[in-house]
Amino acid sequence: MEWEAVIGLEVHAQLLTRSKMFCPCPADYQGAEPNTRVCPVCLGMPGVLPVINRRAVEFAIMTGLALHCAIAPQTRFDRKNYPYPDLMKGYQISQYAEPLAYDGWLEVEVNGQRRRVGITRVHLEEDVAKLHHVHQPTGEAYSLVDVNRSGVPLLEIVSRPDLRSPEEARLYLMRLRTILQYLGVCSGDMEKGTFRCDANVSIRPKGSSALFPKVEVKNMNSFKAVQRALEYEIRRQIRVVEQGGEVAQETRGWVEEQGVTVSQRTKEFAHDYRYFPEPDLPPLLISPEWVEEIRRRLPELPDARRERFEREYGLPRYDASLLTASKEMADYLEACVRLRPLSGEALHRTAKAVSNWLLGEFSRLLNLHNLELSQAKVPPAHLLALQDLVDQGTLSVTMAKAVFEEMFATGRHPLEIVQERGMAQISAAEEVLPAVEEALRGSPQAVQDYLKGKETALRYLIGQVMKITKGRANPVVVHTLLKGRLEEMKGGR
Ligand code: ZN
Ligand code: MN
């Protein structure tokens, strides 16, 4: 029997507001001393009253609009009750019956095909405190609570179970993160936990519409982990069913080191959250005028930017797609081309050259060193200066790559590196000729081969000249000079 996977994703994204969701405490808790970003409201003291953060609501509306959702004219907050040491009040203020935004979609490109993934809802809630579990070498174990994160605004974005493969799930997540970053509402850092994902996954016979028990998978801290966890979980469920068993409806945690999911909670222990309307907050009315005003202020989103990159910079679809999938990379390219008053062909040529650097060497080194583009030491002006050296024929492409590595490592200007290392390409015939003569003397066999009509011997001889000049000779000049000398020899001179 052939099986297919049914996957739905639930994302929690921390919003980049200055203050928390319901109190004036700063929301940038990362890196702050534990328990320094707190007040009676986010500490969950009795008798305090929450106040809704207007900016957080705006960010939620922006996100809803970018995801093609309907925005509720009236929405409200609910209490989600459950006891846990990281939940200061014993309940989380969330949205249950009336989410702020609903019924949207997001498009992902899978193997060159565009697929629409439905969005069930987008709602606002508050984050919880953070527990630090300490295990002393003495065997003593205890937990510490850091309340800084308590009350940080969260956006919960729930997809429909429209995803059919772990790869699709990863692409959806990356697309969603890109959109949130373009909107400037979330930093989207999975490792730091500002963008988190839980997955619901079940299997069913391919083509059937049957509903099998679903499993919720948690604890995935990277895009790769989401894909791996889902791959594992789908294999596990198929194995269970094919061995005549039944998949239990449960919550499982992904264990990165072992590459497995383990059972955390079965259905019998599922929470009953006893939701009810939050009595301390009024219903939230969202006027159509406000929504329209926000819609007008929406920044350019990835798809529109991709089209503009193709149109304005003449970039191939492939380049434009990859570049705009990362806001940082697209911003970098635009910073480069705006350094000069370029238009037409010159603009297209420069954009393509910058794109080649970004998608090639630059990405390779960033990946190698596990860095973000924003952490790189190469400012746009340096990259353009390097490309100038290539265009002028001062550097060959190979040499330019070596210079770029040094720029990447040290942040120095390419001209400085080229001068210091004496790397400039040699193009003057009188400087290249001695190396040509040396190559001819050093490879009599290749010379004989060429004279006998074996054209490929020329390539070997060019290689020899490049070796003698340590790659600095201009290949075009080398080719011309070598060919000239060999033809002379043919003529018996
Ligand atoms: Zn507070
Ligand atoms: Mn939630």
Description:
- By secondary structure, the protein is of the alpha+beta class.
- The protein has three domains: 3-291, no CATH class; 302-421, no CATH class; 429-492, Orthogonal Bundle (Arc Repressor Mutant, subunit A), CATH 1.10.10.
- It contains 15 helices and 16 strands.
- The protein has helices at residues 54-66, 166-183, 223-242, 288-297, 302-313, 317-324, 327-337, 344-368, 380-391, 397-410, 414-421, 429-442, 444-451, 457-468, 475-490, and strands at residues 3-14, 70-71, 74-75, 78-81, 91-94, 101-110, 113-126, 130-135, 141-146, 153-159, 195-205, 215-220, 250-255, 260-266, 276-277, 284-285.
- A nine-stranded mixed sheet has the order 2-6-7-10-1-11-12-13-14. A three-stranded antiparallel sheet has the order 5-4-15, with no helix packed on it. A two-stranded antiparallel ribbon has the order 3-16.
- It is elongated, with a radius of gyration of 30 Å.
- The chain starts with a strand and ends with a helix.
- The mean pLDDT is 93.
- Residues 20, 23, 25, 38-39, 41-42, 151 line the site of zinc ion.
